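Input record (one chain):
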Amino acid sequence: MTDKVTIPALHQMKRDGGKIVGVVAWDYQIAQIVDRAGVEIVSVGDTVGINLWGQPNPLEVTMDQMVVVTQAVRRGVSRALVSVDFPFGPLQEGVDSAVSAAIRMVKEAGVDMVKLDGAADFPEAVTAIARAGIPVFAQFGLTPQTALQFGMEYGAMNQPGAQAPAGLKDKLVAEAKMLEDAGASLLDFTNSGPVVGPEVVASVSIPVIGGFGGGPWLDGRVRMAHAAIGYGAKALDSDVENYANVARITLDAITAYAGDVRAARQIKGAPPAKK
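The corresponding structure, as predicted from the sequence alone:
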């Protein structure tokens, strides 16, 4: 796909059986790269506070911070759809607050859609934002709380051969249908698993994509760019196979640069010394 991505184009991809690629990005440079790679969605996640800025609390990130980071990503994307997560607060404060936050993200950060975590608990906000003309990327799925409610271990849905309780399957299918009826354009199904995931995908006409706990049974996947390329410092000591290990490459590069400086050699990439 080389044309500007649209919501109708994503819906057509679902009907055609195509897979939608989403990437979480938090800066201008990564945004340019993933857009050039041809992904359909660039999602600005509120986990930027923890994963990029070192904030200790996932609830610490603010609307002002999300606007700034989204502006950077928006500048780097020309083709993909740009989505932004609401930080904790605007959605929980009520419908009017949620609509105001969505409008702010469109006006100040230029987003194409907004992502609402725990959207199944706020269908009125989904409807109100959609009525304001802003597409909604609605997140729902299995949480530690719902797993406990149905007497199962969290993550059990992701195990091969897992049998989800009928009540849980019915609940998640019903939530997906409810969010579609409320006006959501896309669904983000967390911990879909290979049992309920295909049933939810088949139950709605809008694309169902997912990150954690997802798989090829969904209409697409979302992955943090920094995780996919091994950017974080924790990748230095990790044996997990990613698509690259930028952290190790960076450590080697900075070590080599420091060696050149200490040995009084010209550093790489510097303008040649004038004679």
